[in-house]
Amino acid sequence: MNITEKILAKASGKKAVYQGEIVDANVDMVMMHDLTGPLAVEAFKKIGCQKVWDNKKVVVILDHQVPAESVKAAELHKTMRTFVSEQNLIFYDVGRGGICHQVMPEQGHVVPGAVIVGSDSHTCTYGAFGAFATGIGSTEAATVMATGKIWFKVPPSIKISIKGKFKKHVYSKDLILNMIGTLGVDGAIYYATEFTGSTIKAMSMAGRMTLCNMAVEMGAKNGIIVPDQTTAEYLFSRTGKTPEIKGLQSDPDAKYERIVEFDVSKLEPQIACPSSVDNVKPLSEAGNIPINQAFIGSCTNGRLEDLQIAAQIMKNKKVKAGVRALIIPASQEIWKQADEEGLLKIFTEAGAIVCGSACGPCLGGHIGLLAAGETCVASSNRNFIGRMGSTQANVYLASPATVAASAIVGRIVSPLEVDL
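User: That's the sequence. What structure does it adopt?
Assistant: Structure tokens below.
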């Protein structure tokens, strides 16, 4: 079996599972946030449940519209706070957490081999740690809270083997954009996508999280990376415990529906153009694209490593007049680390605004929305029509390095144009 099949077999009490089989899996953790959580709470109460199956396995994180920018948002927050209090759940309120997909592993709620579901499509991020993690609907989240179980159809798997060393200012974000551009937004629908190869072994946890985060943009059920020493060291630094990773690898004779190979050694910075994540081209072919806004943050690229890269490019430079640059650290902890390293000072002196840890403009819900005719280059994960505000705005996706360089120049450019 491959690693996804092994995790689902263990979770469903079976020695082995096969592609297409329906399994009833025990869930190790379920996560909700302020947008999807209230619907789950409503459904939970509607089916007559009084108590969640295990209050130590339900995590609620407020991150999408925080702090509340409207009475409606405030009411949703109140709903979640009340439910958390009633059920005594694990809770990260405004100012105490950050973006859910950063907070979950950062606070030790993600471990290799676990089955984790969340009422958010980018829950697949946790596959970077060797967990089977996938997004579910709010009503599904309600039934998981009630029973601790969920059924899955065991997905077929695509093995994505990556080799080579990145050139200067080419990153995991460029790789996953290139990958999505190659395979298409429907190239992995309901597949397990397993990232492997020498490039992955050399990649930081932040880089791995970026890859698994955007697996869903290819339609994947989950993205996953076999846990190794890098995984173990990160999790030990978070929990003080050495995670069990023995046996969590794909067997040599594991079956894959497809094996796809990528070599990053010649990869250049990539750009996803409006209004589809697979409308990807090398940055050198993008042409002259002036911007009104540059956004660095989101559950894809708001980690400390991303901010360090952006600060390196923006140091002692100024954001171009007429451009709004937004920097949003992915968690309170990252915000503090960035402050201690002097990164936030670099951003503010450059003329950028640093916001509190939240999803920000990524979902078009709060902070930094776009007006009609405006263009934004963002380190986030989706560029759909209306995603970040007006349906007549344009959103391009790129690495934090490209976003930072573009903010300085005032048009979408390679980081090499600013940081030689």
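The longest helix spans residues 71-87.
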